[in-house]
Amino acid sequence: MARESHPPGRNPAPDPDTPVRRAISAEPGSVAASSRLSFSIRTPASQGRNLTLNRSVQGLSASGRKAGAGAASATPHARAAFRTIDSRRAAISTPHLANRRRSVREARETPRDVLRNLGKALAKTSEAIKSSSSSPKSPKPADDTILEERPSQFLDDDDDEDLPKRPRLSLPIDVDEDDDDELRPHRSAGLEDEDLTMRSVEMPRRAYSEQPARLSTGSVRISDYYGRGGEAPDDEDGIDPGFFPPRAPIPEEDFGFDDDGPSYDRSGFDMARRDTLGRASDFGLEVPLDMANESTVMLAPQLEDSPMRPPPEDFAPMFDQRSDDDDDDGDNNADMEGFPDPVSEPEEDNEVETVAEARTPVTATVTAKSAITKRGSSTKETIKRTKRISRHSIEYPSLPAGVVKRLAQTFAKTSGAKGKINPETLKAIIQASDWFFEQIGEDLEAYAKHAHRKTIDESDMLTLMKRQRQTSSHMTPFALAQRHLPRELLQELRMTPPVAPKKRRRASVGEDPEVT
Amino acid sequence: MAPGQKLYPRATVKKIVKAHSGCNVSKNVDVMIFLDYVLFMQTLMKEATIEAKQGGERGVTARSVRKVTGDTLAKFKG
């Protein structure tokens, strides 16, 4: 049986036994055998078509083999066909593992063998190339046959391939040089003529605004910000929308804390929003501006706070909120009572005052960034004001720093940050969460108003979360809640039985395209 | 969320939203709002951590937080 797996070129000897056996077992190869016969027409053994027909009737494999093997001049296609048939037959008839493997390997390695043979052929003529280490290893007799079979086209092809490579190596260098030469004059010409448009104020801004557009609706939202930035000061307390100039006198006024209540939020709000927009600087100065912005915010506390204990300034509002709890709760007494704030307030309040007082000289000293520093100082001083006023002229507290810090720390840890959150960072986070609540409040208001309601409903919140892409078809709000909320709150959500089914329906239906 | 700790000041959250929206807030919405806030914080801290790492800072800093605040807020714009 092992004999049969050999390539026919090697094994010209006919087997007298095989025809009998094959005739029974070689049904799968019958089609190929007939094709083989058609190939073997050329061979001297089969000189007539009648003969081939007879053979096909008699014994497929034996006749085919004889014909193919006897013909040394058979076409390469025919030989390949023989080989595959032989291997197939071997695989069928002989359960020998080694045989089977070998046959498969032959079939698989033919392209590589071609290369090997080519290497051999080249090695005879030119001995310089020894890089092809595999060329000496040709364990199989099949290699030789293939070598014989494969015509010298491949050699030619390789030669052809070698030639273009060299020019490639040399070409790119020349091309680059050429390009540079060409480009330089172009650029200068462009500068002289029309480059003003290229460097106009508009371009970088657009680019920047598109940059954070990983949010799919980024542009719309940024436009929202623009709208907001304009609106907010107006709505609040009559601070001019162009708030930079009027901001200057504020530090003097600050000490009477009645008027400027929201100015802290507003100024900070607008500044940061501006940063998030296409920044005022259009020449790619984003980072410096940001730095400046930070430094102004950070400068004062660093300078002044260092002697004392660095207090998180935003504790002050928390203090206020505590005092509020009794006043504003009117509607929701049942839920709300019994959440006193754990932090000790009075000391911090004092500190904040001292800090605020000590900060005024800083504004005097710093001249270059006077506007910004003044704003910063004003923000610091307004912190001590107990309450912020929303645009509906309702006072509101900010979330207690303890809660924010705990949350932030948890998430910072899960996202891989090391170390603790220092007061500066906490302040920034608290600021961000203030903005977040403001934004959420406005959105929810829009939804509720659109539905002609005066209360913010769960449907509004579900709509909001859907629009935030927090919930989707595969992420229900309840699953989110399960993941992120403690069990008690989850129970609160679960308490109202209709909520869970409602959620999904509303979330799917209740989207308002008009409200953004 | 660490178990056994105080949850969050529901009254405060409700008050904040109420002040910003000028609407009343129905009963269990504040839980949802807080859930949203938690998600916001998660995103914010994640972004800030990435930003801090890219900036070669150690841990999350105020700078990184401020830098990502805008984007994260925009992401949570309804």
TrEMBL record, chain A:
| Disordered as annotated region, ranges | 1-270, 302-355, 492-516
GO MF, one term, reads: protein heterodimerization activity
Query: Its GO CC terms?
Result: chromosome; FANCM-MHF complex
Protein localization? Chromosome; Nucleus
Record field: compositional bias (Low complexity): 61-83
Composition-biased stretches (Polar residues)? 32-60
What the entry lists under Pfam families is as follows: CENP-T_C
Q: What is this protein called?
A: Centromere kinetochore component CENP-T-domain-containing protein
Automatic annotation (TrEMBL), chain B:
GO-annotated molecular function: protein heterodimerization activity
A Gene Ontology biological process term: kinetochore assembly
| Any Gene Ontology CC annotation | kinetochore
Keyword Protein biosynthesis part of the UniProt annotation: no
Q: Which cellular compartments is it found in?
A: Chromosome, Centromere, Kinetochore; Nucleus
Question: Which family does the UniProt entry place this protein in?
Answer: Belongs to the CENP-W/WIP1 family.
- For this entry, the protein name equals Transcription factor CBF/NF-Y/archaeal histone domain-containing protein
Question: Organism source for this protein?
Answer: Echria macrotheca
